[in-house]
Amino acid sequence: MAEDIRKCDPGNGDLTAAHSALVAECAEQARNTIYTSTTFYIWLKWLKGMRGALWILAAASGAGAASTVLKQSEENQVLVAGLALLAVIIPGAIKALKLDDTILDYETAAAKFKNAEGTLRRAANVWSHKPFAEFEIEARVFW
Asked: Among candidates 35, 18, 7, 55, which has minimal Cα distance to 131?
């Protein structure tokens, strides 16, 4: 758990403790954002795979329904009708579930968390070498 940096008051001469606490908090938040962005990227990969599989299934169903080989036999009429139905329903289901919008939202969120991770890491590793007052102004943007 992160240390409460509000207890370290630089006005009381506790400047090094406040500085150390702020650096630790920036590092902790950077670690948390990298986990969140990684989770979003994994979920995004799964969503894109599902979207691709559904589109391939719809295309294959349409091709199967249009196949003259399947239409030659009277026994395959139900199969051809089912394939045609799938070819029509799957793209509609993809649009109804707003899968494309969901993928776009996850792409945006993952990128924002990845950018935040880099900024917080820079705050802990680079900006922390500035005087405490400047460092605190830079770091407080995140809270």
From this structure: 18
Buried b / exposed e across 80-94, counting CB within 10 Å, b at 16+?
beebeebbeebeeeb
Residue 142 sits at φ, ψ, to 5 deg, of -85, -10
Which band of pLDDT confidence, cut at 50, 70 and 90, is reported for residue 130? confident
Two tokens at 25? 């908090």
| C-alpha span between 132 and 121 (Å, rounded) | 17
8 A C-beta contact, residue 90 and residue 54: yes
- Output the six-digit token pair for 96: 């109804």
Tell me the average pLDDT of the chain: 86
Is residue 42 scored above 90 in pLDDT? yes
pTM of the complete model: 0.71
